[in-house]
Amino acid sequence: MANIKSAKKRILVIETKTLRNRIIKSKLKTLVKKVDAAVAAGDKALATTCLKDAVVAIDKAAAKGIIHKNNAARKVSRLTIAVNKIA
User: Fold this and answer.
1) Does the global pTM surpass 0.85?
2) What is the Cα–Cα distance from 12 to 85, expressed in whole angstroms?
3) I need a surface site. Which of 20, 39, 45, 53 has the fewest CB within 10 A?
C-alpha cells in the first residue's frame, strides 16, 4: 500500500479510469455482438444501423486510447465486410 499522499490519490484515480475503460470495452463488445447477430439473421437494415452505432463507439474508444487505433480499424473493417456480404 502506498504511503505518500500523491501515490494514494493516483491509486484512486487509476481505479476510476479502469472502471470507465472496462465499461466502454463492455459496451463495444455488446455493439459488435449486435452487428454479428443481425448479420447471422440476414437482416441488412438492422445490421446497417447497428454497424453505424458500433463504428462510432469503436472510433471514440480508439480516440480516447482505450483500444489501439489499428485494433479499431481492424474491427470496423471486419464488421463492414460482414454487413456488405449480406445479400
Assistant:
1) yes
2) 46
3) 45
